[in-house]
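Protocol step 4 of 6: record predicted structures for both targets in the notebook before any analysis. Target 1:
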Amino acid sequence: MRLNQGCIQTLTYPDYWKEISDPDLESFLDHRKKSTPILEKDREHSRYKTELEKILVHYDLGTRVYDKAKKALNKMELEMISENVNRFWEMNEERKNMVLKESGSDEGLVGTSQSSQSKPIAPSRSGKSREVYEPELAAPSVTIKKKDEPIENNSLTEELVVDYDIHPNLKAYCEILKTLQNHHVEEDSQSARRFIKMLKWFCVDYELFLTTGWTGWEERLQQNSFPTPQISLRLVSALFLNHTNDKLHSVVPILKTLITKGKIFNSDVNYLSFETIRMFFGKSKKKCNEIDTLTVASVISAVVLYVPTPCRGLGSEPSENHVKAELWAKIISNTFTLYNSKFVPVWEFHHLFPGHGKCGSSRSDFIAIVFNQTNIQFPFFLIEIEQNGFEVHKDEIVAVSEAAHEFNRILSLGGYQSDDEVNQTRFHIGLINGTSIQFSTLEPLYDKQSSKLVYIHTRNTFSLNIKTNSLEVDVESVLKLVSYLREVVCRDGAWIENMINRPATKFSIKLKAALPSLPTKAVQSRPFETKFTPISKRVKYDFLDEDDE
């Protein structure tokens, strides 16, 4: 097979792939026998499978190399029980017994002499060690693993049954995930495992789904742009300058600088000012988001006065509760409370999954909710918080599962919605790590004709850090955060509030039938002692077609 250099560098046995045209298990075993006379069955089968999966990662669907590797992988199970392969392993066993007998072992399989130490070989599939021993001196290649060989782990496997009829591109999406979960780059492998866990909640990743040929929602992503913050500099300056805390006095010149740079706008109008005329023509090309003075004062004060106090003395970091109470609670609660009384902020909210009943099976650090006419709560935005985490938030899958659960409730209990209205509904997710926040969205992809629905998860729609080494950057960031929450998140919250309060003029039985049957138990947070899940604890997923069950 003609493989590119990047692919060859990842393979453990590149010589085999250079000399073979159509790979098969028997020829791979013959190649391995040349360098290692005695082989271990399960280990060699696993190595062959891993090599094929590495090749699939480096080539696109439909290419000649991809098709050959995929064909070889599909026929591997039949080859494992074929007559030729069975004969190969019978001869391998005879060679093994011969070597053991020549080494001085009377039984050949169990006993060992003092001069020929022994140790158990690889555990069986059941997880228990086999009662088989081999001397290191006689056949070291059976027990010694080369440093450059991949560590295999097939003990943790899980079958995932998927209804490929939900969307025409879903099967191709699963094929990509199946390949990526074994990718040699840790970040890619980790992403695949995350996306597979999301798939259990009928959620697919937007960017990865695009690679299957799905056209996407370009026009809807453009709606995530939001207006430039606008404040009353005169009123805000009066509040800060009259305060006794000197830290707040320094905010006024910073606001003036941001206005001069066009980062924020000033609503105070002096028509004779050249600066006003210049800014007027600049603003004509941009939309503004007027932020009331009380909100501006409260959110900027929270950022300026925040002190990251160590929770266990010098050298430690602030606790999660400290960051939440002293920084985020003041900003987020006031952003919603001072904007619209219909949007109610709730800290520590329990999502009542069916499998856990009234006890509550999952808890969000924060949600913003709206009510219908009978005072039933409907979240439209949730936040999960962590402190000192890694790039991947420990509660990312938890947040997506909670959002999918609440989305099902919104679509099922809301008033009648057309197909377009269902697909325009959007749920927002915020993931906080220390003083940084990253937003994502969950949106339904609904097809009324087929009565199928899947959720699209779009990552990193907006992100920022509100506590850096620059106070000017922090003030600008927190005002941008308020604008995003009010102009983007609250806009979608108002859409949901309108939907759930519509009169029930029709009964949308097709929509209710299309809603996915989600798991009844919540996802557990990912332990973050290490950046990547150890290989011994990783689950390998096998995809099964629901129609074949």
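Target 2:
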Amino acid sequence: MRRRRYGCASREHQGLVATLLLSAASIVGGTLIGLLAAVLRSFGPWGTARAAKLYTELFRGTPVLITLMFIYFSVSYFGYVYQGAYIAEVFRSGIEAVPKGQWEVSQILGLSKTQTSFSVVLPQTGKIVLPPLIGQYLSLIKDTSIVSMIGMSELMHGGQAAVRCGSGITLQHAHPHFLSGFPVPQSQRLTETSANRSAFL
């Protein structure tokens, strides 16, 4: 009996590790791809801008479960490409939220389009996109439970295994879900506080 409980706890622990790794890979990869797609769509030539727009609209219009099935039967570790489409739209909205006057002033000062994009617009975009970006990260962490549909042993799958072992549905199975997502809004609060202090100084 004790060995059985240990095996169930081990499965749940493995699920937690898989959830954290999957979330971290999707956050890092999705952020990089999303930022690149947003920059290309906002500042790139017509061809690359259209390609970036097609990429974001294609994946944002595809259900996540369909994408997971495609990943399972074709390309592995494709989740960050899916998330990148949503993150790209967050960055694009932030770029468009920067006042147009910033571009005009930069042109008067003699800055090129590239200099204006990377030295003036993008630094201001970071503070604008932080709240929706954190919200997207939280949604990403919660969506990792869907991968249990294709047989991957993440946190939800590990919890289900523990329930089948006879431990029942208790609060101890909810704790890992809470702990995996709780640091994200806390980091947002610390980042916003630090940014506000820097702006004040």
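Step 5 preliminary note on target 2. Residues 2-200 form a domain with the MetI-like fold fold (CATH 1.10.3720.10). The chain has nine helices and no strands.
Proceed to step 6 after PI sign-off.
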